[in-house]
């Protein structure tokens, strides 16, 4: 099996670099010309057109950006498309026969073209810009694409509709458009799920300003296009696999299925005026005329176009791991899944591995001549080693001949190997949860921690360390539970019982040996502040296995000095004495610490425990000096992680080196004089005496075969998800079939946008939440439209920009400003705002830079000028607009209930959101008689139990100081009055579990719309290409006595309320109004 997978992977990599001259695959976003003669599509990041009957494709764009989403003008002369040439998708146009492209939009928001106006003079496009100012819908711009229109000749973009529309197509007369909606978060390539969040088809009547839903299936209905008259075509999963259907406005219940593919969904529907339709299916392009059969189009290119090239790229930072050699003169590091070794000063760097797959978890052997690491190259993770072959060559960074060979390689996953201190054995993980010890000399393996004790969540979350005498291992052990760990001790020969050393109800882990094995030190959160969603602050503790070492460690500095003088005197006395026959004169004690000459004492261990740190913090790594006197650790008390030092005996604590890093790791050099630190991807050397930082400036290069790397990531994702998916049976999916089905497309992909779709299509076959690929491109100088903290009337043109609201907390929310609602912005840094230009480009790259805004009062024509610093668009969206929305909800609740009902929105299932909830509920809402807990568009986290506990308070005791009745009482710190929960299709993950639990515990009513069953814990795994991640839903949740998990089991509201488009956009929230009415019924 392993050889078969290796051969298949090798074939995929080889094919990734071979051009398929005869037939293209994985073409995206096909678009038929109005006369049906031509078909435009995206392939390998560029636009092509080909006769609709097939043939040789002609490139329309030739550049390194991504160019896609083509649409034709109604006269067939122009093509509009989207391109990310400036770091985000903007709308462009070009002649249909090819030529120069014209940029039409300049906002750093995402813009995707939908359709041309009937006269071909304008382009309608979807964008994630702000909602209309009157709207009371949650400000989730990424959820709801607003529709704008821009002149083909260029100019100002005007808002046309803000409902949240996708795949928009106008009818011939332009008085209606058809679209698919979006109600919340779910990967768009997920398949076969049926829930309230799936897409539906709607029609908007422009003159009547009315919305009509024209599809009714509980699963996916999407990508509509108009037919003749009032008929329309769309894609639906109503009969299992996604196929093409037809219906009409006159009779939406009459539905005709036009294709009957049993596997692999139909995607990317397009239709020409003559009735010809085009779509993709299983990576192919098809055409279809109603009443006929789908015709596969054979498309070729005359030459390899935009093929992947091996790139030579710099290696200067972004390391993910380091390992210091035993002599401290070289450092191994991992960058983009490859292993390098550099001299300690960074002047010479050598690439050790050169593969398209991933190597990680590197370690030096005790003699420094071997590197051991984990590699995933033949169907599973294996343990390999690379050794210096020439005896006279002491360093890897200068080595000329290296030998690489497997150490442990079976069909199972084996990784995270660690040499024993004597170099004779290797401890490692098997299948992520089992700890084994391998003896290379005898080729024998023993299990020291069996299956069923630990449950790995993400790779790298398990930890173990060897004792200095190579007899024992300290292991992070969950003891068969899930969610917290202990520190356990096992014998390396596999005999005896596992000994739980910590026996704590708190979380304990990352245990290391100190004082030559006479003690251990580890991390524990028993005294740290707990993050209410997940995680907590920790301290470093020590436990002693030797009474003498414990006694010595507890001596004061003064008493230790006295003890040292006594020991020195005793030592001189021994030297003066004559050697005996049993003690040869040439007998020597090894250099360094005293030899390991005792048996560890495991009795009464809790009497020999001490806290080493003086304050709890978030600690990412730690190391104790060999003499046990100095403790070094990377800790975050406020903003970033710094390198701290605590004198273990006196508890004197200081910042040794200020790093303000995002985390990292550290290693002490053998001489104890320096620390090598990996922080925020950078390697540095820190002097332990004065904290001086010396950067290890890596300056190297590597050849990157991007196609081979993507092939590896594909293989890795398929295997990883197959092993860690929450359902071991993969929900009955033929996973091997889909591996073959999707692997064939890899040679036709040269960019991560298309690769992300491939990953999402593959993982979407499992019909699970939290799946799919994610791509976050990095552009060094991407456009960024500065935000002024204002809302505007975007529905009108003309000169200037009318301000409709000043957002609290924004640049104009200051006492000195003259800006008011209704005022008109005329110029930005002296450039006039007119219909001839997109005013967004006037704010490009202006974030946090003084910008001159010229504006006037239209009633008095008084002119003003003010200098402000624009904020980032993400800050305006996620903070300012969110706070504005919450305050509007609070005011509406207060007004509708006459001050009797409180309101709180839980933004995320996390610690900051809980603290806001606690503060508001028991603060400004303390005297309210009932409470509305709004969770709409909460994306999840892990807070459900804290929330239901907080809302489930029962008053069982009153507190009366000096006999006076008070509002307080027990249970103190909980809400003990009536409440209800607002929810919507936009709830996800733990924001599903919370209303589910709230209903199970009968705490109150659920109001709003159903929430899809997405209560599964996920690991979003970042790839060796750091711009890519994919999701693995791993841990399912089950109700007590349930026969199936909550995944895909929708939670229904007690009172179902769907917000009407027109009402919510004009300022009326029907769901909130219903909640207020329901809560007023409980008021006595």
Automatic annotation (TrEMBL):
It holds the Pfam family PD40. It is found in: Cytoplasm. Keywords: Cytoplasm, Hydrolase, Protease, Serine protease, Signal. CDD domains: Peptidase_S41_TRI. One of its GO terms (cellular component) is cytoplasm. Its EC number is 3.4.21.-. One of its GO terms (biological process) is proteolysis. This is Tricorn protease homolog. It comes from Mucilaginibacter galii.
């Amino acid at each position: 099996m392993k050889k078969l997978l290796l051969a298949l992977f090798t074939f995929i990599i080889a094919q990734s670099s071979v051009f398929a001259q005869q037939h293209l695959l994985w073409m995206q976003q096909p678009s038929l010309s109005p006369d049906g003669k031509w078909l435009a599509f995206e392939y390998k990041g560029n636009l092509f057109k080909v006769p609709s009957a097939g043939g040789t494709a002609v490139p329309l764009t030739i550049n390194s950006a991504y160019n896609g989403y083509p649409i034709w003008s109604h006269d067939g002369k122009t093509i509009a498309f989207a391109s990310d040439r400036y770091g985000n998708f903007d709308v462009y146009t070009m002649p249909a026969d090819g030529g120069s492209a014209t940029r039409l939009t300049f906002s750093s928001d995402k813009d995707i073209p939908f359709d041309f106006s009937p006269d071909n003079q304008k382009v309608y496009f979807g964008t994630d810009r702000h909602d209309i100012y009157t709207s009371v819908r949650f400000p989730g711009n990424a959820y709801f694409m607003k529709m704008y229109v821009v002149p083909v000749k260029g100019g100002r973009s005007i808002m046309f509709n803000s409902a949240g529309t996708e795949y928009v197509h106008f009818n011939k007369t332009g008085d209606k458009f058809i679209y698919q909606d979006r109600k919340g978060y779910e990967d768009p390539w997920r398949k076969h799920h049926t829930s309230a969040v799936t897409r539906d088809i709607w029609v908007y009547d422009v003159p009547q300003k009315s919305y009509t839903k024209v599809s009714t299936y509980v699963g996916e209905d999407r990508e509509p296009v108009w037919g003749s008259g009032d008929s329309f075509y769309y894609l639906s999963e109503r009969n299992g696999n996604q196929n093409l259907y037809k219906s009409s406005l006159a009779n939406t219940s009459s539905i005709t299925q036009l294709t009957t593919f049993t596997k692999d969904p139909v995607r990317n529907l397009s239709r020409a005026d003559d009735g010809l339709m085009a779509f993709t299916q299983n990576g192919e392009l098809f055409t279809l005329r109603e009443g006929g059969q789908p015709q596969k189009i054979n498309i070729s290119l005359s030459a390899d176009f935009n093929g992947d090239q091996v790139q030579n790229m710099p290696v200067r930072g972004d390391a993910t791991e380091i390992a210091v050699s035993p002599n401290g003169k070289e450092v191994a590091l991992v960058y983009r899944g490859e292993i390098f070794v550099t001299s300690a000063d960074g002047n010479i760097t050598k690439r050790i591995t050169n593969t398209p797959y991933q190597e990680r978890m590197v370690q030096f052997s005790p003699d420094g001549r071997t590197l051991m690491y984990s590699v995933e190259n033949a169907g599973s993770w294996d343990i390999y080693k690379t050794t210096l072959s020439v005896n006279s060559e002491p360093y890897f960074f200068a080595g000329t001949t290296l030998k690489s060979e497997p150490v442990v390689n079976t069909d199972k996953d084996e990784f995270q190997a660690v040499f024993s201190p004597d170099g004779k054995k290797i401890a490692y993980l098997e299948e992520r949860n089992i700890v084994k010890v391998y003896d290379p000399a005898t080729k024998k393996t023993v299990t020291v921690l069996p299956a069923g004790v630990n449950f790995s969540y993400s790779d790298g979350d398990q930890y173990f360390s060897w004792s200095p005498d190579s007899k024992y291992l300290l292991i992070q052990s969950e003891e068969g539970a899930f969610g917290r760990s202990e520190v356990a001790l096992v014998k390396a020969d596999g005999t005896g019982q596992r000994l739980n050393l910590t026996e704590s109800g708190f979380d304990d882990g990352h245990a290391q040996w100190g004082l030559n094995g006479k003690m251990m030190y580890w991390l524990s959160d028993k005294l740290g502040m707990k993050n209410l969603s997940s995680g907590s602050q920790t301290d470093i503790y020590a436990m002693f296995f030797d009474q003498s070492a414990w006694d010595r460690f507890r001596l004061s500095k003064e008493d230790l000095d006295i003890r040292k003088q006594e020991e020195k005197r005793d030592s001189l006395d021994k030297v003066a004495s004559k050697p005996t026959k049993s003690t040869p004169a040439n007998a020597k004690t090894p250099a360094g610490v005293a030899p390991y000459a005792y048996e560890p004492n495991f009795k009464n261990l809790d009497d020999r425990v001490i806290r080493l740190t003086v304050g709890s913090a978030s600690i990412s790594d730690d190391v104790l000096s060999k003499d046990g006197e100095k403790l070094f650790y990377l800790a975050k008390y406020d903003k970033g992680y710094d390198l701290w030092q605590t004198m273990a005996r006196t508890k004197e604590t200081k910042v040794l080196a200020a790093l303000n890093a995002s985390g990292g790791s550290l290693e002490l050099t053998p001489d104890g004089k320096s620390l090598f630190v990996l922080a925020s991807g950078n390697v540095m050397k820190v002097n332990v005496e004065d904290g001086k930082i010396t950067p290890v400036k890596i300056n190297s290069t590597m050849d990157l075969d991007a196609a081979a790397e993507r092939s590896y990531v594909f293989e890795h994702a398929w295997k990883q998800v197959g092993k860690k998916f929450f359902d071991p049976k993969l929900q009955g999916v033929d996973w091997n079939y889909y591996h073959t089905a999707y692997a064939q497309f890899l040679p036709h992909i040269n960019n991560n946008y298309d690769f992300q779709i491939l990953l999402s299509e593959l993982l979407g076959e499992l019909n699970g939440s939290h799946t799919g690929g994610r791509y976050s491109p990095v552009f060094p100088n991407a456009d960024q439209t500065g935000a002024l903290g204002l809302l505007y009337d975007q529905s009108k043109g003309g000169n200037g920009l009318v301000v409709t609201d000043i957002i609290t907390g924004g640049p104009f929310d200051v006492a000195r400003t003259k800006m008011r609602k209704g005022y008109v912005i005329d110029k930005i840094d002296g450039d006039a705002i007119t219909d001839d230009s997109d005013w967004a480009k006037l704010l490009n790259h202006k974030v946090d830079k003084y910008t001159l805004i010229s504006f006037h009062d239209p009633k008095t024509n008084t002119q003003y000028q003010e200098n402000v610093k624009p904020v980032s668009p993400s800050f305006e969206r996620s903070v300012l607009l969110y706070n504005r929305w919450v305050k509007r909800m609070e005011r509406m609740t207060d007004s509708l209930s006459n001050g009797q009902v409180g309101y709180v929105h839980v933004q995320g299932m996390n610690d900051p959101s809980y603290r806001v909830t606690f503060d508001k509920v028991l603060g400004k809402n303390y005297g309210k008689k009932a409470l509305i807990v709004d969770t709409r568009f909460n994306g999840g986290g892990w807070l459900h139990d804290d929330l239901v506990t907080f809302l489930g308070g029962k008053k069982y005791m009153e507190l009366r100081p000096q006999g006076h009745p008070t509002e307080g009482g027990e249970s103190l710190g909980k809400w003990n009055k009536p409440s209800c929960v607002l929810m919507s299709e936009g709830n996800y993950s733990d924001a599903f579990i919370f209303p589910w639990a709230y209903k199970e515990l009968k705490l109150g009513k659920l109001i709003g719309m159903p929430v899809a069953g997405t209560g599964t814990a996920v690991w979003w795994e970042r790839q060796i290409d750091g711009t890519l991640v994919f999701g693995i839903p791993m841990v399912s949740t089950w109700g007590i006595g349930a026969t199936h998990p909550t995944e895909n089991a929708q939670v229904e509201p007690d009172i179902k309320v769907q917000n009407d488009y027109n009402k919510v956009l004009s300022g009326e929230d029907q769901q909130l109004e219903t909640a207020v009415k329901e809560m007023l019924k409980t008021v006595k």
